[in-house]
Amino acid sequence: MREYFEAQKKLLLEQVSDQNPETERTLKEAFGKALDSAFEVLEKNGVQPDSEERFWQRLSRMLSERGCLRHGYQYFENVADKAYLALENQFRCWPPQEDMEWAKNTDYVQVQRWDERNRHKYFTLILPAEPQELREFLRENGLGSPQECRVLDVHIADSGRKELADILFDWQDIMALNYFFYRYGQLSEEEKKHFVLAADAQNIVAEKDLINLTANLDGICIEDDIRSEEELGKFLVENRLCYFAFDDDTLLFLDYKKIAENYLEHANGRICRGMYIEDTVPQEEHIEIYDGVNLPDFTLKQDQELEESCEESQEEIQGFGGGMVL
User: What is the DSSP track for 55-87?
Assistant: First the structure.
């Protein structure tokens, strides 16, 4: 958190300038001290109803004492306001985090009430969260339905999964997004990779379809190093995946592009990101876990208890002489 704060403060101070070097130095000193004080108060007490008002009182007093109040006004509405709210928003996080560096290692979304006039003020939700507790928090803060809030940003901590944030960018139903993060968290690393590639290749953007995709990854086949239809056609022939076989003597005369085009007319596949991605399960056989209206029930506590129980059971079951675990 301190590193984030210092970066925000630096951005603010870089935007402060004045023809008089002494006035510029004084403005930067006042803004810097006001933000330092705000950080210490928020770190100690969290966000309070009067936190923002007290920040402006401190800043105004510091500028007034230095004879720069009039000069400081030009930075109030845009620069200082944005910098302070960026700081406060980091503390307006749910569930509350004791680790002040939580933003570095956490997947989270930023949401805002539709009636919020200040476009820089938002809430941060760390997902997945317990559904009932999340519902209560959303209701208490006027975010109880998709009509009452909007998703501003989706942050994915793992740099190897940044594409997931782009896929989820237009998501609006917070409870459905919470369930998606729960489902996505149950996937293996290989399945997570397949999910992102399949969603991109099939241009899946609907919330319902993205959730259901997490239950239909078994039929997703991915072949690397296929960048064109010619390469796909050659791959199909060499691996005898065409609808008919070719003699070795005829291989030099084959139109691999035509072979791929013919294959793709009947297969649910696409070349994407230098790979060939195909869903081998017919659409009518896909599993539907979400109908777009009724979200399945789940609880994080239940999963944690089950995981702990499995670990305990494995420790108790010993092989002969306390050797191998069965």
Answer: HHHHHHHHHHHTT-HHHHHHHIIIIIHHHHHHH
Residues 292-303 pLDDT 10s: 999 999 998 766
Q: 294 in helix, strand or coil? A: coil
Task: Determine the number of helices (DSSP H) and then strands (DSSP E) in the chain.
Answer: 13, 7
Give 43's strand partners: none
Which is higher by pLDDT, 245 or 155?
155
Does 325 score more than 60 pLDDT? no
pTM for the model: 0.73
Q: Which residue has the tokens 């940003």?
A: 153
In the chain, beta strands by DSSP E: 93-94, 108-113, 123-126, 149-155, 220-224, 269-272, 275-279
Q: To 10 degrees, the CA torsion angle through 98, 101, 105, 108?
A: 70
Q: How far apart are CA 74 and CA 68, in angstroms?
A: 11
Dump pLDDT digits (tens) for 31-42: 889 889 988 988
Report which of 105, 75, 110 is spatially closest to residue 94, judged by C-alpha positions.
110
Q: Could you tell me if 80 and 118 are in contact, meaning their C-beta atoms sit under 8 angstroms apart? A: no
